[in-house]
Amino acid sequence: MFDSPLSASAYEVLRVDRTATEDDLRRAYRLRLRQTHPDTGGDAAQFVQVQRAWELIGTPEARAAYDRGRGGASAPEGAGPAASAPDAMHWGASPRTTAPGTRQRARSYGQPGGWRRERYLDLIREWSGRGRELADPYDPALVRAAPYEIRRLLADALAEEATARIIADLGMGYTVWHDVAVASSDAKIDHIVLGPSGLYGILSEDFGGPVRVRRGEIIGDAVPGAPIAGLLQGMKAISRAGRLKFGGAIVVLPDEDVPVPIDELGKVHGMPTAVVARSSLSTVLRRGVTGARSIGGTEQFATRDRLNQIVRFA
């Protein structure tokens, strides 16, 4: 809940300034507990947030680590930023590494989150001042202070990278193309995944808060436009270009932002569609979206070859 550039900081959750004294912090924590406790009419989700915020900044040691941008549990020794605990708040680019062991990973093309990271770096430098040298463009304090649209780019890049790691662990029976450009458009498809359960277009998003679905579309306070409709339009363009038939569409969101882990919407504009919590993505890709056509044998090889011929990256 604190791992997104769009999330409120621990200080914001407790409603104190970053310079608050330990006594002020403790008083604010007790007040927020009373305000959010479900037994007194508060919101359970906010109550949990308050408790987690206190864990992050409730002691001098934890607070110092949080203020350095390394709040929460530490990463294993030798691991990169991607291996850090969810609340580590280090949003630097994850190194592309091969998992230890002999297990084959999914075949992957393109750079997940690459387009949005490049755009983020351009805009954060422009916003902070041209000619100014940024020691760390992912410094949490800098990111938190940036305008929403800049933070949104980084949040979406992180979402795409998280999805890519999950797909990679599915094994050699799967192939994925990241950041696929849509011809004659500025749009892109975050991921196209081919496996035994079918061919899927996937949108990885982080809207920074809870969302819901109404009439086959995602809605929420911070949801721009029509994400599902945009994904389906991009898939349609790729389908025409490659004379391919997608089996389904999947939207992947942070676990805490969806009411149920797997929400199968049925057919949206004729395409089987599901909104999925990130932790449930591997389950959905292995079993397939209801109504999606499975692909096996020579057809899977032919589909992969065809995609390799037509895919261009954003």
Please, could you describe this protein's structure?
The chain is α/β, with parallel strands linked by helices and 314 residues long. It has 2 domains: 10-67, Helix Hairpins (Orthogonal Bundle), CATH 1.10.287; 104-310, no CATH class. It is 39% helix and 16% strand. The strands form 2 sheets. It has a 7-stranded mixed beta sheet with strand order 1-2-3-4-7-9-8, with helices on both faces. Strand 8 (262-268) and strand 9 (271-277) form a beta hairpin. Helix 2 runs antiparallel to helix 3. It is globular, with a radius of gyration of 21 Å. The protein starts with 9 loop residues before the first helix and ends with a helix.
User: How many angstroms does the end-to-end distance come to?
Assistant: 29 Å
**Number of helical elements:** 10
- Helical/strand content category: alpha/beta
Strand percent estimate? 15-25%
Pfam families: DnaJ (PF00226), NERD (PF08378)
Protein name: Molecular chaperone DnaJ
InterPro entries: DjlA_DnaK_co-chaperone, DnaJ_domain, J_dom_sf, NERD
